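ok so I'm stuck.
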Amino acid sequence: MGQVLNIFFINISIIYLLISLTFYVMRDVLPIQASSPVSIRIWFGLSTGVIAVFLTTNSIMVDGARIDLRIIPFALAAVFAGPVGVTVAIIVSVAARLMTEGFSSIIMNALVMISIFWTIAIGLSHQYIRRGQLYAGYIAIGMMLVLVRVVGQVSLDTFINVFIPYFMMTSIGAWMCYWGAKKLETHLWMFRLHTHRATVDELTGLPNRYRTLERLSEVELSGRPWTLFVIDVDHFKQLNDTYGHRAGDAALHHIGKTLQAHCPAGGFVGRYGGEEFLMVLEDAGDVRLMADEIVTVIRDTPFSFEGTHIPMTVSLGATLAGAEPGTVVFERADAALYAAKTSGRDQAKIG
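replied:
not stuck anymore, here's the structure
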């Protein structure tokens, strides 16, 4: 009994540690589900298969039967990654056992049990069942397969003193692992969602003011020369008054995407606020040429709203920064922008 308890706690720790690591590594593709890209489901299946291998190395043998918690990672693979995930997990587990133990009666019995579980898992995947209920079903099936295997193969004392506690602890451990995996997935997914909302401008999809200034600070601290472009949409209030705020939102989205599409590699574009955008380049080459190209591309890229063509232009202030504070650089570029607007708009000025 003491050995069973020891194996139980070791296995639960292995599962929770490795499944936590898996979710953290895959945090950018959460939530993982049966409809996720195949590559994601395969990676999750590989991870749960590796967990099953670790559990196998921390199992005990009782009257020729192996006691471990491999059913839990198999069930997790099935409910999170569907048939693809559980198939990959089972293949990894079986391959590892064949390489370490070769063919034997124990291996053959295990292959039969795993094949049955896999077949049932494929069948259940086509049923509309809530994930928690599906997981409970997989665990119940797994324990039933173990029960079928050990009944008549072990003594009554061994069954009462070892396998009944094992079944109870498997049920408890399965619930703990599923609850922990579900909470961790939700936490990481919500963290990524809130991080996205805190750093990305919802309207344009560009970095928002906070993230833009943060990137600006990173470039400033690099110690390398860099160029700042401050870009302002011309006659934006007039556009809103004439066509409505929905047209204004669409125009900002259009300009943001156009600037992003024409930003050289290594640079970045962010929305500073209102109708103002920033573009930062660490190596702009000819600043005047680049500034004029930005103004031209905005002017020449068609923009239509609900079938109406709306001309769009921008004014731009640019400056080349050296070893000086970013606030000084911004003030210089902003002064150049003001000069461009007071000189007739639809042009660039260098500060």
